[in-house]
Amino acid sequence: STCKGQMQLKALIVLALVACVGGCGKWVLSTPRQPVPQDSYIVNWNNKTTTDPPMYLCACGNLTGNLVLSDNGYGPGYKCWHQENGRNMFCGVNAYTVLTTQFPSSSGPTTTDSTYTMPVPPKTIPSPGTENAENPMFSCVQYVNKNSGVTGVVGGALLIDSRTGNYVCQSVFTSASYYQTTVVSTVGTGSYAAITGDRC
Length: 200
Known about the structure:
The chain is mainly beta and 200 residues long.
């Protein structure tokens, strides 16, 4: 019957919507009660060492960065570190969003290695509000080894370098060796992985 067909069609639409939402990485606003929202995506890359404490992928507005639990003279609590107009900046709780893993976690987000022919792999998740921008910003991870006392996988922003026109992964984090000091690590294609997932 027509009614039965409509019900089946609605059920298919609902299932499609559930499947779509389930496969996405979702940006969730932080709060004082949840500075790291539930199911936040922990920065990792293959079998490389993660930092201790772990870092997360975050965004201040549409500027993606690295969520770090570190004081180092900048005050207690989590901070989303990023670069803005060439300066190392951070925003605090209530101002940053964090990339979270939506059910089922097996379908995203995950890391995909960059290559010279594919600096932004398919299904790379854009930063909040830049989905339709001419040059959207994305999240990425890279590995640092004893960089100002920090060893492990760090998160960052996957963006176009204004000087070269090429994509780079730019990470900002606090030094483990020097007080009130931040570090910028920038690497090119082949040395970073993008954060990918099914698109909604």
